Amino acid sequence: MTKRKAISKKIRFEVFKRDSFTCQYCGKKAPEIVLNIDHIEPVKEGGNNELFNLITSCFDCNNGKRARKLNDNSVLTKQRDQLEIIQQRKEQIELMLEWKKSLENVEVDYIQIIIDYINSKIKPNTLNENGKTNVVGWLKTFKVEEILEAIDISAEKNLKYYTEEIYQESIEIFMSKIGGILRGKRMKPIQQRIAYINGIGRNKMYDWENVTAKILLNKYTKLLENYGWEEIQILEYLDREIQPFTIESKNWTNWKNQIENWILNVNQWERDDEIEFNEFISENEEKISIDEKIILDFNFIQDNLQVLIFFGSLFPEFNENKFKTDYYELITSFFNFMRENYIKLIF
């Protein structure tokens, strides 16, 4: 039998940190509960104190709850155990604080890495306090790699040099564009393209209405999507038609009116399709027998029933079986009425 060795505080801390101070059995977290270290492979079966054989568990999961009568000695034992638990909790809180401080140090390191990287782009200039505040804000939302990539993109597009010196104005533009690049990278391709077209219009037309343009372009692309266009088709259309049209447009009013006309055209496509579909149904309706029509209607009603049950289940007093019974009785009456009246109309 392997002799049990005490687990050092350092190893306990590493296990707690790895498991985010959370019991891996029940999911409870410190400091609400006292954490223990459990052996995955028990010591009596040859398990050791290596990190890979240790796991975080709470006191209850590791030791189990025992229900037994307490005598005088057991009361004292219980009090002593409670004091030990309090001490363990205190130590674990101290470990958590130490862990939190280490994470804060990592964040500070990331901030400095990004500041140094920006400074390398704008040397001999350095980032001011406002710029450093921006860096802290970016790190709350974006990964370090994303920020570094956005810095590269903005530097390549916006930093301007005169001989070997950087224009001060271009540094301000360079910094102001990084946030937009980061947000743009998170957008879906269609949204990225819309933002790009919006940028063209904003730079070209003094009276450009940014919000209205975005609404119109979103509405237009959504209509195309609803009509059945794939994402690649919409992107190609934006590149082939909308972007050149935006570049060539003389003013905001002309651009807006044309986009609104195109939106009306797509709506007309849908109405034309609906008319064709209805004409097709009218032409073929006589070929459908009464029983076939009832079967088609019944399948449609079955689908609707599932939707009604879903919404009904949101109410506490909803009785699914009673609802189904009432529903089918109503549908049966309706089918009988349809059959009788349909036959009368034909004959």
Describe this structure in words.
The structure is a single chain. The chain is mainly alpha-helical and 347 residues long. The chain folds into three domains: 9-65 and 78-104, DNA Binding (I), subunit A (Orthogonal Bundle), CATH 1.10.30; 188-287, no CATH class; 288-346, no CATH class. 72% of the residues lie in helices and 4% in strands. It is built from twelve helices and four strands. The protein has helices at 9-18, 59-63, 72-122, 129-141, 144-158, 168-186, 189-204, 210-227, 231-248, 252-285, 290-312, 320-346; strands spanning 35-39, 54-58, 161-162, 165-166. The strands form two sheets. The chain has a two-stranded antiparallel ribbon. A two-stranded antiparallel ribbon has the order 3-4. A hairpin with a 2-residue loop joins strand 3 (161-162) and strand 4. It is flat and about 85 Å long. The N and C termini lie far apart (95 Å).
Which terms summarize this structure?
3 domains, 347 residues, two-stranded antiparallel sheet, 4 strands, mainly alpha, 12 helices, DNA Binding (I), subunit A, disordered C terminus, 72% helix
Quick synopsis:
With 347 residues, the protein is mainly alpha-helical.
Structural class: mainly alpha
- How many domain modules? 3
Based on Cα principal axes, name the global outline: flat
Rg to the nearest angstrom?
A: 35 Å
Strand order of the largest sheet: 1-2
Per DSSP, the total helix count is: 12
> Main beta sheet: strand number and arrangement?
2 strands, antiparallel
Annotation, overall tally of beta strands = 4
Strand content: under 5%
- Taking all residues together, what is the mean pLDDT? 76
